[in-house]
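Worked example 2:
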Amino acid sequence: MTDSPTDRSALIPSADQPLPTGADKTRSVQALFDTIAPRYDLVNRVMTFRMDVGWRRRALDRLGLPRGSRVVDLASGTGDLAVELGRRGLVPVGADLSFGMLAAAPIAFDRVQADGVALPFADASIDGTTCGFALRNFTDLEATIAELARVLRPGGRMALLEVAEPPNPLMRWGHGIYFGKVVPVIGGLFSDRRAYAYLPRSVAYLPDPRELLDVVERCGFHDIERTLLSGGIAQLITATRTSG
């Protein structure tokens, strides 16, 4: 027997509940994205004023791989990055914990349901990896990045997109209000308010920028660069898999 939508939504913590950890977090994240999958793309476009489209294109520009390269798009969701990879002549393979997100993809692409810490790909078999706005959703971020390093060939490239905190104090204040107060309202109008109230809170899972870059380096990457996008409301981290 499968859980009903109501049962799944109950796994998403409300505003007065602490953020989950460990296996509880994994279940919450899976339930959240299964819940919001049907209108996920629409809400993204509305709440980012379509800036997310440009951010993804920027990430693939920086990936810098030749046509025919095989790229795993982790937390691929409904396939925004995977489809763009295909348009550029790359060979995308999506991987996502949420079957609901994969099933809601409007365009077919190769994809598999999988946890980021246990990807079904051989060692050094992939040319590139991407991940769009999901780092804070992994239960063990370092183990997940280490798993990306495992499947990447030496010299392979990685591009990670995530939200960020603007360095300008005034912009940071305004963005905090928008992300914490307005986004849940938008999410409630088009999808599930409980889920979109959780997403801004989930930023607390992210390590600070220096620690995040240290994690990437420890996992076996070099040429690591962090670029702030749109005044610092998003960040792009690119890196190259170290040989050996």
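The beta strands are 70-74, 91-96, 111-113, 126-132, 152-163, 221-229, 234-241. The domain at 5-241 is CATH 3.40.50.150 (Rossmann fold).
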